[in-house]
Amino acid sequence: MELDRRTLLQAAGALAMAPALLRLGLADALAQGAAAPASPAAGPQQAPGFYRFRLGSRLVTMVHDGHGRRPNPTQGFVRNAEPAAVEAALREAFLPTTHLDIPYTVTVLETPDGLVLFDTGTGGQLGATAGNIPANMRAAGLDPARVTLIVLTHFHADHITGLTDAEGKPAFPNAEVALPKAEHDYWMDEGQASRAPEAMKGAFANVRKRLEPYKARIRPIDGAGEVVAGVQAVPSFGHTPGHTSYLLADGNDQAMLLGDVTNRPELNLRNPGWHLVFDMDAQMAETTRRRMFDRVATDRIRCIGYHFPFPANGYVAKEAQGYRFVPAGWSSTV
Prior knowledge:
Metallo-beta-lactamase, Chain A; globular; seven-stranded mixed beta sheet; alpha/beta; single chain
């Protein structure tokens, strides 16, 4: 996917209100929604953020990292919709119009060979309202040392910064990293980095910083195909140059791990033609959304969304206008 300078500058515009995030660049702004959240006041806390369900005979655990906050989501969050239309969509979904909290949830698949982790969260390095993966994994009885494979959807900072701790050491010391080759080729290309707008240069540097400790354990995923038994790569380019989703399957049971095919489903499902500021190739991202939504709706496949409301899984139903998210029911048994 060839990104022109205008597209990059539009995406980099997400940084206009986020000088504190310039040290990592655009990807952080995307992760945080353009402003670093303040430290939460002391007070009541929620229960540990994990939820389990069965996929065939396999156990899947959703692990919540926290959220980033986007201020003024009616202004500039959707590039090709009027503020009044965005406000109406937020109100229809009973969401505030003054800000939008964007959840982050990773997925852990238990296999006979160890744990497979899909994306890694923020590593506690992108604001005070996120960074809960280590604590919530421990609460779920999941030892990070048991993670033998990390599978990445793409390289935005809210998905990869958790590869390392604050000191730059691997957060998952025994893991290989499987990643989309097209994504790796783009972000590791010196020419792309040198031509990028200044606001994006930190994003390129962040990719190198997070992957460096794993450089001897990187496994490229070239297009579609099996990653490990029961996990198929599904290219879903547009959000980023090599963005990839994954179809998890065991027997007749399937789940599509969408990654960032969509952000908050309350916006992009009902309006798949809306172009969010996060998407690096907005038109390709729209084409991908429509294709993926149609597939999972037609085949009634459970969906896992990184930015879906926790526990971040459910179904997509086709409607006269767009689609609708149907959360999977909470079960007290596994």
